[in-house]
Amino acid sequence: MFSPSHSRARRSLKMLWVLVMLLGIGTEASAPGIKAEVTLKGLDYGKQVGMEFLKSALLQLSIPDLQGSYSIPLVGHVEYAMTGFQVKVLNLGESLIAFVPSSGLKLSMGPAEAEIDGHWSVVVSLIHDSGTFKLHVRDMTLAVQVKVDWDGAGRLVVSSEGCSSHIGSLEVTFHGGASWLYNIFFGVLEDPIRKQLNSKLCEKIGNAVQTLERTLQTIPESRHISPLADLNCSLVVAPLITEQSIELDFKGEFYSPASHKEFPVPPAPFSLWKQNDRMLLLGVSDFVANSAAFVYYQAGALSRTFTDSQIPKGFPIRLNTESFKTLVPELQKRFPNTTMALKIFARLPPSLRSQPGTLQLLLPGALQAFVLPNATSAVPVFLLDVDTEASGQVFASGKNIGASLKLTNFSLTLAHSDVGPFPVDKLETLMNIALKSAILPRINRKLKNGFPLPTLPKASLQDMVINIQEGFLAIATDVHYGA
Asked: Residue 379: exposed, middle, or buried by beta-carbon count in 10 A (0-12, 13-18, 19+)?
């Protein structure tokens, strides 16, 4: 019996999270299939999101206890301790973030203010006293520089290039105990407290950058799209960083997990369509879609077989030889009242070409007709070359990318016949009508809903602008990060 085949066709320095949008991973192409550019507007939004996470992290800042002893003339030996430091109030003040050309990012913050609670205790001779305190930190500034680079094999890497913090003033309010004891030890502790805070601030930043770097290293080298195809979107060159943006070039090639055979046509260079009023710019070249078509074609997945049960009831042609008697006269004579099957497949990989304002799709296919005289065999009777051309439009559909197709050309050619020669013009007309009236409308209804672009968890794309350029699809979009 003839068996139909079917088509097979996401806690660190969050201020940097936008930069790794769409990150995939070794590469060998000299030109990218996908470009991504984060603009100043995107960097500023990343800063706003990141500062909220940074504030949350600093409110949990762990400050070691301070304790020791010293001698004071006329007073004697003093033992002190300040313990249980806990940040209660934090105001980070103004913050600025900027691209550092050919390097990475720099962040400055302040003047910031903080209130820190804790416990104090003092032992002087036989006197023991203790209580609580509230430490007021004012005019605190922080400067951080982060290097953004690649490892030469496709992965994005980040590292801390430097961190400095400065505390302008420390004021303390003591509660409990004798006031004369306060003055004995706080003057001695002011410098150690200042050093501890400065050290811990930069330590926290450094840990966050290291966490982000570890996260980047866990991102797999390819994205699994289907059992037949994976997508390699690794970096092909180091990030391009200017005062205005950071640009990431990704390979963007589909390949078979089984063979890893590369698409024989390399990607053509292209430049992003500039749209600086959006946070993120994306460019997806024709190379990406064409490499996908090549993979599915090589796997034999661009094929489908239809039997009569799959044909809409109102369609004028049924899949039996009786319906084909005026189209292929000899068929009914040799196989009277026999059920049929049609196998439609790609005889070459489909190809896509982007032109300003429109997409051109070329679908070189074929149609093999079979008769099914019994339950065990399928007899080929004729083969047609089916060449289809369509134009496409791409648009934003809510938060997704939608599309629509329009048939521009359709032709049939008799490639081989086991039932004698026959004209194909009537069959071509009927199939043309079926494509325009039934098949394409069904496809367009699905395409209208659109498909979401991949994003990080809790991130969504908003206010997309889509433009079809020569050789690539350009997308300019804002990004929203939320719970």
From this structure: middle
Tokens of 273: 């369509």
Closest CA to 393 of 383, 385, 403, 382: 403
CATH topology of domain 41-218: Bactericidal permeability-increasing protein; domain 1 (3.15.10)
Cα separation, 326 vs 279, in Å, equals: 61
CATH fold of 14-20+221-481 reads Bactericidal permeability-increasing protein; domain 2 (3.15.20)
In angstroms, what is the C-alpha Rg of the chain? 34
Q: Are residues 80 and 189 in contact, defined by beta-carbon separation less than 8 angstroms? A: yes
Cα separation of 471 and 290, whole Å?
11
Query: What's the pLDDT score for residue 104?
Result: 94
Q: pTM to 2 decimals? A: 0.81
First to last CA, the chain: 54
- Domain ranges for the chain: 14-20+221-481, 41-218
- The b/e string for 131-161 (b: 16+ C-beta within 10 A; e otherwise) is eebebebeebbbbbbbbbbbeeebbbbbebb
Distance from CA of residue 360 to its chain's centroid? 26
**pLDDT reading at 180 higher than 70:** no
Q: Is the dihedral of CA 335, 337, 341, 347 positive or negative?
A: positive
Distance (Å, whole) CA 17 – CA 21: 7
Residues 366 and 402 sit within 8 Å (Cβ to Cβ): no
Residue written as tokens 């500062």? 51
CA dist., res. 379 & res. 369, Å (int): 8
Residue 301 is encoded by which pair of tokens? 């997945």
C-alpha–C-alpha distance, residues 430 and 368, integer Å:
17
Whether 466 and 473 have beta carbons less than 8 Å apart is answered as: yes
Q: Nearest CA to 136 among 56, 197, 60?
A: 197
Q: What is the DSSP letter of 458?
A: T
Tens-place pLDDT, residues 91-130: 998 999 999 999 999 999 989 999 999 998 888 877 888 8
Whether pLDDT at 21 is above 60: no
